[in-house]
Specification:
heterodimer, A: mainly beta, five-stranded mixed β-sheet, 53% strand, B: Growth Hormone, Chain: A, 5 helices, elongated, 4_helix_cytokine-like_core (chain B), ciliary neurotrophic factor receptor binding (chain B), neurogenesis (chain B), growth factor activity (chain B), cytoplasm (chain B)
């Protein structure tokens, strides 16, 4: 009686039945037909369970129960229609359950056993997360995937609202495959065996406050737990200097929940668990901001050897040391990446990027990240149009005659690719300040000269010079030091 | 203490001791100031209970009265070498955790480390005077090994508090040890009993 057939892979099915008679019985003769044309297939079995092919439409099954001595005493014939067969996928196999304690995240990996099914079927995976020895369900999700007739490893992440160390977490999974072309009944697979991530409260010597030294955004809600050794009692738990009401998680684990956390000091906010013995255990929470998008990103070259990029960082993240906001300059054309050494206390940030031979245009991405978030800013720039020379040096003045002088100066850098425009400021005691512009081909680490005429004889002059790019003006250099010179008598 | 001193050696020892006592006094004052700043900047209660810190030399000692001058110096030297390593680690941790955020605390830590190094050198000088010489640094490092890494940042903060507290006690004890040492040999004299020592 009650012949039931279940298939796990749409090809073979496992049929089992009951025997109503109480008499002791021996082997069973089992015959089944695969289709109307071919003769039945028969074999003997001691079990009340056989595995036979799934019929194309229906199959006639004859079960003859024999006595101990082998004489048949009961025969029953069944017709199994394909739609009576129940399809239950094989129980999924969890490959790994990996905790990331720093982010309180569980990562589950399992095989989808897709090779057992035709391509393109929809598969649904129900995943449950449970806590404590009492297996309280804390999360249940249904995850969808497409089977590809290959065994694919699927992965799923779950972030706990409290640190994984606080108590044990268990995960189990089952699946449902929507075999559209299968006319029989379909149901969920069995649940997989549970995988466990033990809490510290199950480790005899486990103790401490968790999460350990983590970073969160301002406004976050954070749960901390204090796991203590057997026999220890907690007096209180404080966040900063404020005690919080404790929630008992297990016999060795108490928690507090901090809502809407404020920005912490540079050294972080201490979360302290005080024991009756007076001893303390604790952790530190760093509460800050994700980085702002850098503003006013600007890049220029002082010497065609280095490109200097500057930007305004925006609101300070409130994170310091190894948690501080980090910057890197990536140049798309060359694929070159430079990490920037930025002093977090400075208002304006600077980063140097080496000029690449024969490359004028630079496609910069300024990457910004800290433990809370990341962002970027980009800039496309032709550096020949962003020349900001260094201050002219070693300005010297020599006289040709009583009304003209010869100026000579030096600029550190190689400007062979551009023309330079230099401006000479001429001052003397009794005449108005004059500016004299002169342009010349740029040189490589070279000196530059200019001739000034129509000066007054026997007159004391002050000269200084500054330079910029001639064709695409960007910025003047700073003025050189002033050089004094008195023209000779007429 | 070593055999009877020549007058110049005794004079030199007394001078070194006197300078050492001043160094210890200054160091103690600076450490106490640093303790308050450290506790406040690390969000700690200055009176917080700190578990035993592995590798931390304890100033309290039994039989303080009966110690010879060389024993005093050797114990002091071992302690301040240990403090030098512990403070260097604290400074490294400060840079790693805070970067430029709390430069003042960093400078104060570095200043105390400098004083501890100077005092260590001073003790080595005194031991050279005792003509028994200071044990090599390597021997001690092998014995003590590197200061252990704390489990988390809060433990690191507490450990720092413990180090500074014990250093303040040691500075007090060193002053007393050097006063004992400064007395003309044989070392008699009514030095304060260990009970008064830290």
């Amino acid at each position: 009686q009650n012949l039931k057939c279940v298939t796990h892979n749409l090809h073979k099915m496992i049929c089992n039945w009951d025997v109503s008679s109480r008499r002791r019985h021996g082997q069973t003769d089992f015959c089944y037909t695969t289709n109307d044309l071919s003769p039945p297939v028969c074999f003997k079995t001691k079990e009340k369970r056989v595995e036979i092919p799934v019929p194309e439409s229906s199959s006639v099954v004859t079960i003859t129960t024999n006595s101990i001595s082998g004489t048949p005493f009961a025969t029953k014939e069944f017709e199994i229609h394909k739609q009576d067969v129940l399809f239950i996928p094989v129980t999924p196999r969890i490959l790994s359950l990996t905790p990331d304690f720093s982010t309180s995240t569980l990562n589950l990996k399992w095989s989808d056993n897709g090779s057992a099914f035709p391509y393109g079927l929809d598969a649904f995976w129900q995943i449950q997360v449970l806590r404590k020895e009492t297996m309280e369900k804390v999360a249940e999700v249904t995850y969808h995937s497409k089977l590809t007739h290959e065994d694919i490893i699927l992965s799923w992440n779950w972030t706990s609202d409290l640190p994984l160390e606080c108590m044990s977490h268990y995960v189990k999974i089952r699946c449902y495959v929507n075999v559209t072309q299968f006319v029989g009944l379909k149901d969920w697979s069995d649940w997989s065996p549970v995988e466990v991530i033990p809490g510290k409260d199950t480790d005899p010597s486990g103790s401490g406050v968790f999460p350990l030294d983590t970073v969160v955004a301002v406004g976050s809600d954070v749960t901390f737990c204090c796991v203590h050794e057997e026999g220890q009692n907690i007096t209180n738990m404080t966040y900063g200097s404020k005690p919080y009401p404790m929630i008992q998680l297990s016999s060795r684990s108490n928690a507090i929940r901090v809502l809407n956390a404020n920005a912490s000091d540079a050294s972080g906010t201490n979360v302290v668990c005080r024991y009756n013995s007076g001893m303390l255990e604790g952790t530190v929470l760093f509460v800050g901001y994700a980085p702002d998008i850098p503003q006013n990103l600007s890049c220029e070259t002082p010497n065609f050897r280095i490109i200097k990029c500057t930007w305004k960082p925006g609101r300070h993240s409130g994170l310091y040391g190894k948690r501080k906001t980090k910057y890197s300059l990536f140049e798309r054309t060359s694929g070159k990446n430079v990490s920037c050494e930025v002093h977090e206390m400075n208002r304006e940030h600077v980063c140097g990027f080496p000029v690449i031979p024969d490359q004028k245009t630079y496609d910069f991405i300024l990457g910004v990240s800290n433990p809370i978030g990341q962002t970027e800013s980009s800039l496309l720039v032709d550096i020949t149009q962003r020349v900001h020379p260094k201050t002219p040096e070693k300005l010297t003045v020599s006289g040709n005659n009583s009304t003209s002088v010869h100026l000579r100066w030096f600029i550190n850098g190689s400007f062979a690719e551009i023309r330079l425009l230099c401006q000479i400021e001429i001052s003397s005691g009794h005449s108005e300040q004059k500016l004299h512009n002169v342009s010349m081909p740029g040189g490589k680490l070279s000196a530059y000269t200019a001739q000034l005429n129509a000066l007054h004889p026997y007159t004391k002059y002050q000269f200084r010079v500054r330079c910029s790019a001639a064709d695409h003006f960007w910025r003047w250099s700073d003025w050189s030091r002033i050089e004094e010179y008195t023209t000779s008598e007429a | 203490m070593a055999g009877a001193d020549s007058p110049s050696a005794a004079l030199q020892r007394r001078d070194l001791c006197a300078r050492g006592i001043r160094l210890a006094g200054k160091m103690r004052a600076d450490v106490i100031n640093l303790l308050d700043t450290y506790a406040e900047r690390q969000g700690l209660d200055a009176s917080a209970n700190v578990a035993a810190v592995e590798g931390l030399p304890l100033a309290a000692v039994e039989g303080w009265d009966e110690q010879t001058g060389t024993q005093r110096l050797l114990e002091n030297l071992a302690a301040y070498r240990a403090f030098r390593a512990l403070l260097a680690q604290m400074l490294e941790e400060h840079r790693e955790q805070l970067g430029e955020a709390d430069a003042a605390l960093g400078r104060a830590l570095a200043a105390v480390l400098l004083q501890v190094s100077a005092f260590t050198y001073h003790l080595e000088e005194l031991l050279r005077l005792e003509s028994c010489g200071a044990p090599s640094e390597e021997e001690q490092e092998e014995e003590d090994g590197l200061p252990p890494q704390p489990h988390g940042l809060f433990e690191q903060k507490l450990r720092g508090l413990g180090v500074l507290r014990e250093l303040a006690q040691w500075a007090l004890r060193s002053g007393r040890d050097l006063r004992q040492l400064a007395k003309p040999s044989p070392g008699t004299g009514s030095a304060p009993s260990p009970a008064e020592s830290p």
